[in-house]
Specification:
This protein is an alpha/beta fold. Helix content is 41%, strand content 18%. Bound molecules: adenosine-5'-diphosphate (ADP). The site of adenosine-5'-diphosphate (ADP) has 17 residues, from α4.
């Protein structure tokens, strides 16, 4: 591994189930390859304020099954300034850290990219976000767990929706992406998903009602991606109440429970593979790349691509949902 003896690892931005499995995998793979590992607490914030501890294999024992992140996570405005990043660089140097693994979403990898370029510092990113909104990877760490949580919640809400013959708008996370809403709708047998990707193309609510989504059913469930573009579940419910006063409408916002819980087997395996691949990437003299998975193969995605490109939704899934909700 050219010039790399010690790897720092941090989690940043929104937490996601599976981050711990990734921390474990990076730590153990690095130690396996004869490297030192240092855990940086509270993301870029802890990097600037020097919250850094050397990790041995025991530091990551018994964490693969835990949600959240043992390294804690934070948002850090200071890292968005050149002075903040300069401080971060000097702390890394003091600790003898000569490469960094950043686990986080779009924002965290944007910060990583800027820092890596400014200081010519080797960084590998792992896509840790429940939103699945990073380009160049089929899936992200935490997405599968969140999807399963959504499915379980919708199954429960369905009992009330059916018993009271109600129309439920269930708001799910996703930032500006509809992956959780669309796949959550298919997995839970919902009638529709309202997602930001097609909000500018069609009035999804009008389309839904025109298609007579209550013709054959007395209760309905619609998943709505939280986003200024969709307006969110509350705004859609208000619109239905005004335009279709006969409907008995309710709203449920799933909120932060979507982030929590023990990671699924899928997320644990994904995080383990990606964590090991991050160390391999340094061995291959790769830098400034995000680890992705494409067709079940590990790939290296340049930061610029992962961050800048919008990840498209699979339109076949929309079609499938429409066909199955008649
Ligand atoms: P996520 O990684 O989940 O998308 P955020 O968007 O909140 O989370 O970003 C996490 C952190 O990444 C920010 O608090 C900041 O420290 C850093 N970051 C985000 N954008 C930038 C940027 N343009 N320049 C430098 N750092 C950034």
């Amino acid at each position: 591994m050219p010039g790399i003896n010690c790897i720092g690892i941090l989690t940043s931005g929104g937490d996601a189930p599976g981050m711990n499995a990734a921390i474990r995998a990076v730590t153990r793979s690095a130690i396996y390859s004869g490297l030192k590992v240092k855990g940086i607490y509270r993301g870029y914030k802890g990097l600037i304020t020097d919250e850094i501890v050397e990790f041995k294999t025991q530091n990551v024992s018994n964490i693969i099954q835990m949600g959240g992140t043992i390294l804690k996570t934070a948002r850090c405005k200071e890292f968005e300034t050149p002075e903040g990043r300069r401080l971060a660089y000097s702390v890394l140097k003091e600790h003898g850290i000569d490469a960094l693994v950043v686990i986080g979403g779009d924002g965290s990898l944007t910060g990583a990219r800027i820092f890596a370029t400014e200081f010519n510092f080797p960084i590998v990113g792992l896509p840790g976000t429940i939103d699945n909104d990073l380009y160049g990877t089929d899936t992200t760490i935490g997405y599968d767990t969140a999807l399963n949580t959504i499915m379980e919640c919708v199954d429960k809400i369905r009992d009330t929706a059916t018993s009271h013959e109600r129309l439920f708008f269930i708001e799910v996370m996703g930032r500006d992406a509809g992956f959780l809403a669309l796949n959550g709708a298919i997995a839970s047998g919902a009638e529709a998903a309202i997602i930001p990707e097609i909000s500018t193309e069609v009035d999804q609510l009008a389309e839904l009602i025109q298609n007579g989504f209550r013709k054959s059913k007395n209760s309905s469930i619609v998943l709505v991606a939280e986003s200024p573009v969709t307006g969110g579940a509350m705004a859609l419910a208000e619109r239905v109440k005004k335009e279709y006063p006969t409907y008995d409408v309710r709203v449920s916002i799933l909120g932060h429970l979507q982030r929590g819980g023990s990671p699924t087997a899928h997320d644990r395996i994904l995080a383990s593979r990606m964590g090991a691949a991050a160390v391999d990437a340094f061995l291959d003299d790769q830098r400034n790349v995000m680890i992705g998975v494409k067709n079940d193969e590990i790939v290296y995605v340049p930061f610029a691509k992962a961050i800048k490109n919008d990840k498209p939704i699979n339109r076949d899934l929309l079609n499938t949902l429409r066909r199955l909700s008649i």
